[in-house]
Write a structure and sequence with these properties.
Elements lengths: L3 E5 L4 H12 L3 E6 L5 H5 L9 E5 L8 H11 L3 E4 L8 H21 L6 E5 L14 H14 L1 H27 L9 E7 L1 E3 L5 E4 L7 E3 H13 L4 E8 L3 H11 L9 H9 L2
Parallel strand pairs: 1-2, 1-4, 2-3, 4-5, 5-6, 6-10, 7-9
Antiparallel strand pairs: 8-10
Helix pairs in contact: 1-7, 3-4, 4-6, 5-6, 6-9, 7-8
Length: about 280
């Protein structure tokens, strides 16, 4: 079945690796980029691919509300949405909040609240969580605390909030769809794909599931893992680092086992926070 993917943050390094992979499966892609100067580089990614590539010039930093995001979704009409945008440290704290918090949450809400959107995948990172999961050792916890509180505090607050919005609202939509009798395979999938420290290595195998913080994930492997997650029945938080398993096989196995690394977070408290956003 062909799909139409709205790829937000299309000029990013992961997205430029991801775009040809999506198109090679005969999926259509609308790539959202910030400036017209970026357009030739993105258009080149669609050359000789079976899927159709469209490029939409629209700065995500201008998206301030769910309504703003909804307008783009209604214009593009995707059935899957991938958020791979990020301020990347440019523009200081103000731009980080505008992109990684405000726009990310706006697109997350708009996607989940659009019935024709069946999957929403956001690219997060391994340490984007509030609690210490039982499978983390002391070193993993120390690594996460240093990253989140000392190195990237503004980014962490933005990403963990966006992850919580995705999870809380996805669960609400799933509950409604179950009550409405929607078959399980056709219900909404909200996915937070959570790589480790990003590297420039070539794509390889993966280790997924309950893994510690501090691992590395190549951007190329991250792109392959995104495709694999979209192709499988996975829902929830997907931690992924470089390893030896085939991405699609490993992720589908997690889906069948019901492994979701968000399980030990305090979701009652998260619901309260989400209700105020």
């Amino acid at each position: 079945m062909s799909h139409h993917v709205l790829l937000i943050g299309g000029h990013g390094k992961v997205s430029q690796l991801l775009t040809p992979l999506l198109l090679s499966r005969s999926w259509n892609v609308t790539s959202v980029i910030r400036t017209a100067e970026q357009k030739p580089a993105i258009e080149a990614l669609g050359k000789d691919q079976p899927g159709k590539l469209d490029v939409l010039v629209s700065s995500v930093s201008d998206v301030k509300s769910e309504s703003d995001a909804k307008q783009i979704i209604e214009r593009v009409k995707p059935d899957w949405v991938v958020w791979s945008a990020g301020a990347g440290g440019k523009g200081g704290a103000t731009n980080t909040v505008a992109v990684d918090h405000d726009a990310a949450i706006a697109f997350t809400k708009a996607s989940i609240h659009t019935p024709s959107v069946k999957k929403f995948l956001t690219v997060s990172y391994l340490s984007s969580r509030r609690g210490r999961p039982s499978w983390w050792d002391d070193k993993s916890w120390e690594t996460a605390q240093k990253t989140n509180n000392e190195i990237l505090p503004i980014y962490y607050k933005a990403k963990v909030a966006a992850d919580e919005v995705l999870t809380v609202l996805s669960r609400e939509r799933l509950e409604k769809e179950a009550k409405d009798g929607v078959p399980e395979k056709e219900r909404f999938a909200g996915i937070s794909l959570r790589p480790g420290g990003l590297t420039e290595e070539k794509a390889g195998g993966v280790t997924v599931g309950k893994i510690g913080a501090g691992g590395k994930t190549s951007r190329d492997t991250t792109a392959h893992a995104i495709v694999a997650a979209l192709e499988t029945d996975f829902r929830g938080w997907l931690d992924v680092i470089d390893g030896d398993e085939d991405p699609k096989t490993a992720i589908q196995k997690l889906a069948e086992q019901g492994v979701d690394t968000s399980a030990e977070e305090d979701w009652d408290a998260a619901k309260e926070r989400v209700s105020k956003l």
